[in-house]
Specification:
Elements (H helix, E strand, L loop, with lengths): L5 H10 L13 H19 L4 H24 L7 H6 L1
Helix pairs in contact: 2-3
């Protein structure tokens, strides 16, 4: 493949198996949900042949939005919970 990007491949190969998303040694549930979503979206963007900078920009914006929603939901109402049940907690 004459268009093969050896530089990008070397970077990915060197980072394979590293936990780049480590926060204080552990990830919380919100971070894991967000990471799983981002991995799926990255595969989708890759299939659409978006460049790495385009993918990273989109994934960063999505991560910020999802983490905001996930953290906001923690303080919010649980599914199926009535407002009286929430006040009792």
């Amino acid at each position: 493949n004459p268009d093969f990007n050896y530089g990008e491949y070397a970077t990915i190969r060197n980072q394979a198996g590293l936990n780049s998303y480590k926060t204080s040694g552990f990830a919380n549930v919100s971070q894991l949900v967000c990471l799983a979503n981002l991995e799926n979206l990255n595969a989708h963007f890759f299939q659409e042949e978006l460049s790495q900078p385009e993918r990273l920009q989109k994934l960063n914006q999505i991560a910020i939005q999802q983490m905001g929603l996930l953290l906001e939901n923690r303080a919010g109402k649980w599914l199926g919970e009535t407002s009286d049940e929430k006040n009792e907690k």
